[in-house]
Amino acid sequence: MTFNPGHLQGIDLRADIDRLRKERNAVILAHYYQKPELQDIADFVGDSLDLSRKAQETDADVIAFCGVRFMAETAKILSPQKIVVLPDMDAGCSLEDSCPPEQFAAFREAHPDHIALTYINCSAAVKALSDVIVTSSSAEKILSLIPPSQKIIFGPDRNLGGYLARKTGRDMLLWPGVCIVHEAFSETELLKLRARHPDAPIAAHPECPAVILDHADYVGSTRGILEYAQSMPGDTLIVATEPHIIHQMEKAVPHKTFIGAPGADGNCNCNICPYMALNTMEKLYVALRDLEPRIEIEESLRLKAKKSLDAMLAMASGTVGQGDLGPARVTGD
Question: Which of 7, 63, 264, 294 is the most buried (most CB within 10 A)?
Fold first, then answer.
């Protein structure tokens, strides 16, 4: 159903969202790639998994996740007793779309001696078919804990998988998915921008293609890029990820200048995530008012998906050591 904000005219959205937040005992989460007004009204702003874990620790009855569908699913996997709403259920992800569960299941069956190391940007159904979930910040550490003899499928992001393979020397079978936002950056335009700002370092997300990462002075997760922006000695940074992260950079270090890396048209507008952009203040208000659209996950599927998330958390925290991950375990069994 098409959203029509016309009937919301005259409403003080910020005040009414605050009222509903209290009435519903809700926590509002916003990913770094959300519009500034959604970031500013949120209780927590951050990376997808970090947000879900923060919400899990609260006593909130409702989680309103301003992000995309796989992020809201992760919140539901970790907090099944809480109501989880997503302002726009069409807020998907090109990486999730690139990896349909039935195709991933067939791919696993065709490679039974491989374990599946899967990027968190995937559906709950694909998480349930995976052995270990990884984030862009935890992937390298988790990879180091897997015995060198163990064959690995990495999906759905071939760019992140390729970056990890080049950095660690591990040979992995890569699923051919990409993020449409990070694929849009232009090497030619980036080099032109760097020529105009020769002293400005480049910070890039590992979802970018290798031709972009090869020019980066720092490669890391969205939170890692934000931390780099605060700690770097210079006063200008070129940012090769979705440009709404710049809002948090400007709040944290207002005396510095941040420039979004360009696409083929020479500006960063083409790198705004169209899925993230579907969420609005109006839709957040309606989601809190109606407690819809709501994320629902069948319990057996949730538990299988949670198993791969738990494996990641255990390995990232150091409570699971090398060799504890058995060969070719399929969590969907």
Answer: 63
